[in-house]
């Protein structure tokens, strides 16, 4: 029998084990455990059945900068996903969002939209800096982007619920990818003289708003741009 069909059958038995009928529930639970033992199906494999993933190709061939990594984590948190950078030979790195049902698709789309928005705001700010020192110009531009991210992250932190799907997502990642090392980049160091740059970044982020779908308390959350 196809392994996915076996897992689907086990999941069906587990759903039946929640029946109000004690005999039916006990029988379904025994059958589920019997199938798991017979076909060597683990609890992690069962937990991972509701999980899906979506990918966004990185614009960089190398390690993404700090502000891009931070944005991916903010979006993943907003949509109760886990995100990591996947590398394949001959291809650009991908941001892979992993979550329940449609959340990864929405997260990947939101990340793409916000990335373009932050990239443009960062570029506009950079053009307005009339300094010759390239290193200092890059540092101040990164400070701007980090302030933008801080404002958006603060908005997300006040809005999201306690994650409900972490165990399932972790099981899926472990089953399909094993242990994934975190890709870490250091933020630019802010100084007192960067106050105006920080304010500019936070002001630019005021165009971002977080909304919850009205049809259900468990609907995906939407991170969109405020209307002008």
What would you note in describing this structure?
This protein has 8 helices and 5 strands. The chain is of the alpha+beta class and 228 residues long. The longest helix has 26 residues, at 134-159. It is elongated. The N and C termini lie far apart (56 Å).
List the defining traits of the structure above.
alpha+beta, three-stranded antiparallel β-sheet, 8 helices, 228 residues, 2 domains, two-stranded antiparallel ribbon, 13% strand
- Main-sheet strand order equals 1-3-2
Order of helices and strands: HHHEHEEHHHHEE
Largest sheet: 3 strands, antiparallel
Low-confidence stretches: 214-225
Mean pLDDT: 77
- Look at the helices and sheets and give the structural class: alpha+beta
Instruction: Please identify the oligomeric state.
Output: single chain
First and last CA, distance: 56 Å
Instruction: Provide a count of the helices.
Output: 8
Strand content: 5-15%
Overall geometry:
elongated
Topology, number of strands: 5
Q: Over the alpha carbons, how many angstroms does the gyration radius reach? A: 22 Å
Helical content class: 40-55%
Topology:
Elements: H1 3-16, H2 22-38, H3 43-47, E1 51-57, H4 66-78, E2 82-86, E3 94-100, H5 103-127, H6 134-159, H7 166-176, H8 195-204, E4 208-212, E5 221-225
Antiparallel strand pairs: 1-3, 2-3, 4-5
């Amino acid at each position: 029998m196809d392994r996915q069909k076996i897992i689907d059958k086990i999941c069906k038995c587990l759903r039946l084990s929640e029946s109000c009928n004690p005999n039916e529930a006990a029988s379904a639970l025994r059958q589920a455990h019997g199938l798991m033992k017979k076909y060597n199906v683990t609890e992690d494999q069962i937990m991972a059945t509701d999980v899906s993933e979506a990918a966004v190709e990185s614009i960089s061939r190398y390690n993404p900068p700090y502000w891009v990594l931070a944005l991916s984590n903010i979006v993943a948190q907003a949509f109760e996903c886990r995100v990591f950078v996947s590398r394949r030979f001959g291809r650009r790195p991908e941001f892979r969002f992993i979550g329940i049902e449609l959340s990864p698709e929405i997260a990947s789309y939101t990340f793409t939209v916000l990335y373009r928005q932050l990239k443009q705001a960062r570029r506009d700010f950079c053009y307005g800096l009339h300094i010759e020192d390239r290193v200092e110009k890059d540092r101040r531009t990164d400070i701007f982007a980090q302030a933008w991210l801080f404002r958006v992250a603060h908005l997300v932190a006040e809005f999201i619920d306690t994650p409900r799907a972490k165990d399932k997502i972790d099981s899926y990642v472990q089953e399909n990818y094993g242990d994934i090392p975190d890709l870490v980049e250091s933020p630019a160091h802010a100084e007192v003289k960067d106050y105006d740059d920080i304010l500019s970044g936070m002001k630019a982020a005021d165009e971002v708003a977080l909304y919850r779908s009205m049809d259900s308390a468990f609907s995906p959350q939407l991170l969109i741009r405020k209307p002008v």
